[in-house]
Every structure is written in C-alpha cells, then in structure tokens.
Write a structure and sequence with these properties.
With about 260 residues, the chain is an alpha/beta fold. It has a single domain, classed as Alpha-Beta Complex (Protein-Tyrosine Phosphatase, Chain A). It contains twelve helices and eight strands. The strands form two sheets. Strands 1-2-4-7-5-6 form a six-stranded mixed beta sheet. A hairpin with a 7-residue loop joins strand 1 and strand 2. Helix 5 crosses helix 10, helix 7 packs across helix 11 and helix 8 packs antiparallel against helix 10. The longest helix is centred in the C-terminal third of the chain and has 15 residues. The radius of gyration is 17 Å and the shape is globular.
Amino acid sequence: MPTDPAVSRSHSLAAQRWIDFAEIDNVRDLGGLPVTGGGTTRFGMVFRSSTLQQATRADLTQLLEPLGLRTVIDLRLPDEVEREGYGLFADAAVHIANLPIRKSAQSSLAARDLVPDKTRVDLTGLYGQLLAGSGDHIVEAVRLIIDPARCSVLFHCAAGKDRTGVLAAVLLDAVGVTAEAIADDYEITNQRMQRVRDRLDALPSYTGLPQANTGILAISGDVMRRFLENLHAEHGGAGKWLLSQGLSEAELGMLRDVLVEQPAR
C-alpha cells in the first residue's frame, strides 16, 4: 500500500524536531509546526524537555553552544527542585527561572500532591486545573520567551509531558498552531516515555510510577484535543486567556513574532 505523503512529511518533521542527548530523554524543538493562515513555528527559539538534572557535560555543552541556550524555565514544584536539583546546570552560564505549574497558587507545593493517585488520572481535567492555577507563571514564561536577551529558551518539568505539555499547548495555540498539530506534538512523547519513566523511577521525588503509557504516564492526542476544546469554549483560546491573565496585546504580538516564521513571498 502506498505511503500517504502527508503522513510521511509528518514523520519526517517529528524526526527533525527531536534532539538527542546522552542523559536527557525528551527534548524537542517547537519549530516546524503549521500555523493557521500560513507559516510555521520557528526552529531554534524554544525547546521543550524532560528533567535536565542528570545531563552530562557534553549534553550541557550541546545546549549552550550549538543550540544557544540562555534560559531554562523550570516548571517543577519547589520540593522537586529541592530534592532533585539542577545537576550541572546549577553552575552553568544560563538563567534559571523556577515557575511552578500547579493546581492553584494556594495548593500544596509538594509533587506527591499534584497527582495523589498516579494510576488513575483524568488528564484533561488535570490540565484544566494546572491552567487555572498557573496563569501568573505562564505569563512570566511568555515574557522570558519574548525577551531577546533570554533566547533561546528551554522549558521542562519532570517527564516533559503534563506541565510542559500545558505550557507548550498555550504557546502554540496563542500563535495559531492548529489543534491537530498541537495534539500530535503532545502525543509523540510516547516515543520516549519508557526512557523517561525508567529515569524518573530511580529518583526520590517520583516513586510509585505506573508502567509507561498508563495512569499519569499515559499519552493520547485526544487528551490534548479535549483540553484545547475546553480552552476555546471557556476562554476563547490561549491568546485571549493570556490577555485575561495580564499579558498585553503588544506582548502577545511579540510572542507571534518570536515563534512564527512567515512563508517566503
């Protein structure tokens, strides 16, 4: 049976976006995604990742030099940061901003309370709670991304799936990336989830993880599609939501300028 050209292009693009490291499992560029009305997201500006704490010296060098990393946005909760730390990044020439993604500003800041039962999770509901509880930090993250002195920027949590997925979805939806492309971007973490799970399972903050692709480690594009549907139904989309959280129209325009590469005329 002939291969669908659109599927082949999608697989090729996904391969381009992955960036391989020795001890960081889930890093990819947010570039190359289709934007409604034309253009694609720009390569080399923003990266999403799983935890960086066990990065090797070569991993660090690759991020700082060819990728030009200047800013790390850490979405983990304070107790995770205290226990797990930053590894070599603690002394690196990079700005680290800890902007926890949490259910509410008043909720527990312990990672164990983010998802009490890791085997049974309504991920769409969880993502809605994380959005509702993290408007201030998501706006701060956008302001770092649009600051020319701070790019390139990498944001991460532990697995690089849930908290990272929420921030990625907001950024991409705000600049007009299609919902299907956002869901596909979310879903391709499946390709690295076993590696991510094995690494996290050996760390003190993440005991009791289920098997890969189950419970809190499950990944389905439908979860992200429903999250985006709710975002549009309740807030009119990520752009309007960001404005309601204090981002200015000018800053939203700057985000589009940073993330979107217009087609050649």
